[in-house]
Amino acid sequence: MAQPVIGLMSPGDMGHSVGGEIRKQGFRVVTSTTGRSALTKTRAERVGLEDVGSLAKIVEASDVILSIMPPESAEAFATDIAAEVKKQGKSPVFVDCNAISPVTMKRIDAIIRGAGAKCMDAGIVGSPPGSGRIKPKIYVSGPHVDAVGFFNSETMTLMDMGPEIGRPSALKMCYAGLTKGTNALRTAVLLSGEMLGVGPELKSALADSQGPQWQQINAVVPFLACRALVGRDGADRRNLRLGRRYRQNPQRSGRAVSFSRFDAFGGRDARERGSQPYPRSNAGHLWRHDTRTQSSGVKRHSSWDMLTGL
To answer: What pTM value is reported for the model?
Structure first.
């Protein structure tokens, strides 16, 4: 029996990581980077995804199609897949892996099955596979769990939640409500302290009486704005984590320049130097205080200090 072909859209941060790990198992994984950024194309090439050039070609080639994309695009993508499935008379297994509500997932299930294809619900909990962090778990439900056995590997764990569509989406929604909600609350609290002029005292109080919380704040909050920029601006996450983001500066003959303090979004240092702010200059500035030189000679921001200029 021939090994199934896996279609994947889209090869972003999570998508290309999942596709790459499936590719390592010997599967052919196809995608389309038409109209996508150079970064997305590089990611797909780096992990061996085959660019077939169009959605129609993905449907034509694939036995299983994975949808891993921003959640606001999930239903429209499923609708496009359904139209192409009907047109071609195919019956692939469509697996929605996005952070959507159970209600949205059930609508997608109806759309896909209405076109004559099969549908599975999936929720990814954890970091991208192969990132060296905690091994992600892929929670799935639906009647075709055998079609997604590739989610069980050295870098991913398949968790079968039974035949009912919507259960993984419900789990992911609740899980993200805690993780992302907590990070939003932490950020809001710290920003409020800064804007009310009690930032240093707040940090000291948290460090003294909320040790575990303070450690998690320092481990996560400083990188939230950087992570939000990845994909939007095509920046490299590794550079962002070192507090460095490159841009074109018209006052410096188009040379790439880096920031170390305050000017991630066109903040104070950028204005003091007279350089051109970033496009979202009203977002304020990012990172301050407490830089140190690593062994690489690159300054890294060790503090959470992140302001938005609201």
So the answer is: 0.74
